[in-house]
Specification:
By secondary structure, the chain is mainly alpha-helical. 72% of the residues lie in helices and 0% in strands.
């Protein structure tokens, strides 16, 4: 029949054909039944599994190593009984590494030659070497992401230092780095150690202290405005909490 269950079965079979067709390029006719018959003489590394694995590595997902271990585990039996299958499998995995490296435009300073893996397909340690390569790539991705976050954090701090006297808000910083407010807030707290509002107020108070030291007779309302507070009362409250005395007392004490 052609009920919903049949359609689902046909869809699964067609997906299987698309995933495995590159393994059987010499096969003029390819069917789901034929793939099942050949399963015992070939390794299992469908295109969907490779794509999922590559995507995980490019995201720097530590689960990538578990995915790799699962792929190897699924093929251990056939590789033990068919050495030539292992050779093809190693070639495929090496191809996967090349695909990953191309995504980084060769940014990764790999200290080894991937072509050597092709020649050492019989080496019992070949899969350990491939796994180590993957681990190195993941470390690179993590380092790169941290550097990018550090650069963004520096951009945020520079923006505050240049605009603290204005009525700036978190949304302004988010627009500066073309990110959401939520991500910007998380990045700021993670990189600086305190939230945006706390850092901004502390920075403004430090600037106010410098002004009061240099100009002890300055009007408190003027100082508040010069460091970005749109209310003298708010400035006095925040200053007192931060410094332990009012701005006037601080100026007189200096």
């Amino acid at each position: 029949g052609f009920g919903l269950e049949s359609i689902k079965t046909l869809y699964v079979q067609c997906s299987l054909l698309l995933q495995y067709k590159y393994l059987y390029r010499q096969q003029r006719f390819l069917s789901a039944d034929l793939i099942q018959l050949k399963a015992d003489e070939n390794y299992s590394y469908p295109l969907s599994a490779e794509n999922n694995f590559i995507e995980a590595v490019l995201r720097g997902n530590p689960e990538s190593l578990k995915l790799f271990d699962r792929i190897i585990s699924q093929n251990e039996k056939i590789m033990l009984s068919a050495p030539q299958t292992q050779r093809r499998f190693v070639l495929m995995l090496t191809g996967t590494l090349h695909r990953i490296l191309r995504e980084f435009y060769m940014e990764i300073p790999l200290s080894y030659d991937l072509s050597g893996l092709d020649e050492e397909w019989q080496n019992p340690e070949v899969f350990d070497r491939i796994r180590q390569n993957i681990s190195d790539i993941l470390s690179f991705v993590e380092s790169k992401e941290k550097q990018e976050d550090d650069d963004l954090a520096k951009t945020l701090l520079t923006y505050i230092q240049e605009h603290y006297h204005e009525d700036i808000m978190l949304v302004d910083l988010a627009e500066k780095i073309n990110a959401s407010e939520k991500y910007c807030s998380m990045l700021f707290k993670q990189s600086v150690g305190e939230n945006f509002k706390t850092y901004l107020n502390n920075f403004r108070i430090e600037r106010a202290k410098e002004i009061l030291k240099a100009e002890p007779n300055a009007k408190i309302s003027d100082v508040a405005e010069r460091v970005g507070f749109n209310s003298a009362n708010t400035f006095i409250r925040v200053f007192s909490k931060r410094v332990g005395m009012t701005p006037k007392a601080f100026a007189e004490g200096e």
